[in-house]
Amino acid sequence: MTTYAASYSGPSTADYLAAPAYPSFDLASVFSVAMQYEGVPYVYGGATPAGFDCSGFIMYVYAQFGISLPHSSTGQGSAGTQIPVSEAQPGDLVIMDGHDGFYAGDGNILHAPYEGASVRVQPIWTSSYTIVRLGI
């Protein structure tokens, strides 16, 4: 898998932070960009479209909007403001113990789930999570 991840030659998180592809930020745009990566394989430690882990996926997408995040679900959860689940919008972060993803609406998450799976939308499987919004 490492060879596969290393084969990516497009923009990195650092490249996007230096020159954001989308200089204006709104949740709908963030979610739209994130959905473009549906089907990318999970790669532990991955943070490019060659392969993502959960926090690498979020870090890469938000970098395209000029928002720098750590490569850690805990750190990403601390980077924003917790909001009520009832106010969640696609593009907000779903923060769980040791995992995170994008809220996808209707109780779903868009995430890089685990080794052997790919970025996908699925129902949130636990009641033990928080919603975090960046930029407020």
TrEMBL record:
Domain of life according to the entry: Bacteria
The keyword Nucleus is assigned to this record: no
Keyword Transferase in annotation: no
Transmembrane feature ranges: none
Alphabetized UniProt keyword annotations: Hydrolase, Protease, Thiol protease
InterPro entries associated with the record: NLP_P60_dom, Papain-like_cys_pep_sf, PG_Endopeptidase_C40
Ranges of residues in domain NlpC/P60: 24-136
Cross-referenced Gene3D superfamilies: endopeptidase domain like (from Nostoc punctiforme) (3.90.1720.10)
Assigned protein family: Belongs to the peptidase C40 family.
Protein name: NlpC/P60 family protein
Organism whose genome encodes this protein: Cryobacterium breve
